[in-house]
Structures are given as C-alpha cells and as structure tokens.
Amino acid sequence: MPCMVLKTKYKLSSIHFLVKLRVLIALVVNFSLAMLLSSCDKTRVFEQNQQIKDYKWQYDDAKTFTAEITDTNQHYNLYVNLRHSFQFDWRNTWVKITTTFPDGKSVERRVNLVLSEPDGHWLGDCLGDNCDMQLSIQQNAIFPRPGKYTFKIAQDMRVNPLTAIKSVGLRIEKNQ
C-alpha cells in the first residue's frame, strides 16, 4: 500500500510540473509574439483613435489629434482611421480636416472617404459588425518646420448626426 501512495503523489507532482511548464511556455510565446508585433511597425510616427459617443457623430464633435514632428526632411503618409458598423447607410463620408501648424496658421480641406465598392461591398477589414479602414488622405507630405501639428477631423455630411460611425483616428507614418 505505501508504494501506491508514493506513485500517486509522483503522478500528481509530475502533472503539476507539466501544467506549470505549459503555462510558462505560453507566457514566453505570448510575450515574444507581442514584442515581435510591436516592433514591426517602424514607420509609424503617430497613431491615435477616438470613440464616437453612442455611434452618432455630430457636426460639433470634431476629433482633435496633436502630433510632434521632429524630422522636416522626411516625407510622410497621412491616413484617417475609421471604424463603422454594417448599418452605416452611405458608400462614403465627407470630412473636414483642419491642420494647425506650429506657428498657429491653419489650413482646412474637405476630403471624401470612400468606404465601399459601387456594388456595396465594404472596403477595409470587416469582422462581426465592425469595418476598420485606413484611408489615405495625403502621400509624400512634408512638414515645413518641427513642432506640434494639430489635426481636427469633423464629419461634413448632409445628415447630423452621422450614425453607425464608431471611431475616427489619425495615422502619420514615414514614407519608405
């Protein structure tokens, strides 16, 4: 009988060891994967997204993003990040983008963001009820002086509020 008790204890301790080993391996793999994925995006200079309250984007709810630009010799690509649901009623959305330079001068322009094909097929990465899009608004941009640049993005459609928009963001990356 004493041998059986020892054998059972040995089996339990080896099972605990294997469970701990599996947990340790999973932690190491997840940490390594996270480090690998975070280091892959070396071109990103700035990226931030802001939620739209109740998925109803009001005219007066412009989203503001401030990016610090240090390299004025670099060319940059600028994108609007947009998340919408499948219930969005339009193939596109118009936005007003106001850029304020470090010296306080501002430039405003109206941009058409195309969200679907003519047949209604959504562009971007769609999963569940979400479609995530990264829409180019300017390629090879040059920032004339170092400092803080502020970008204000406001919806500029004929309807207010613009429903089914979940978030909007800005991405600035180095042009390679």
Proper CATH architecture of the largest domain: Sandwich
- Supply the number of helical segments: 1
Rg, please? Answer: 25 Å
Question: Kindly, what is the distance between the CA atoms of the first and last residues, rounded to a whole number of angstroms?
Answer: 73 Å
State the order of secondary-structure elements, H for helix, E for strand. Answer: HEEEEEEEEEEE
Q: How many extended strands?
A: 11
CATH topology of the largest domain: Jelly Rolls
So what's the CATH class of the largest domain? Answer: Mainly Beta
Secondary-structure-based class equals: alpha+beta
Q: On the 0-100 scale, what is the average pLDDT?
A: 87
**Poorly predicted regions:** none
Q: Helical content, roughly?
A: 10-25%
Strand order of the largest sheet: 1-11-4-8-7
3D shape: globular
Q: Biggest sheet: strands, sense, closure?
A: 5 strands, antiparallel
The domain tally reads 2
Share of β-strand residues:
over 45%
Walkthrough of the structure:
There is one protein chain. The protein has one helix and eleven strands, in the order αβββββββββββ. Helices cover 22% and strands 46% of the residues. It has one helix at residues 2-39, and strands at residues 44-51, 56-57, 63-69, 76-85, 92-100, 106-114, 125-127, 130-141, 147-155, 162-163, 165-174. The strands form three sheets. The protein has a five-stranded antiparallel beta sheet, with no helix packed on it. It has a four-stranded antiparallel beta sheet with strand order 3-9-5-6, with no helix packed on it. By secondary structure, the chain is α+β, with helices and mostly antiparallel strands.
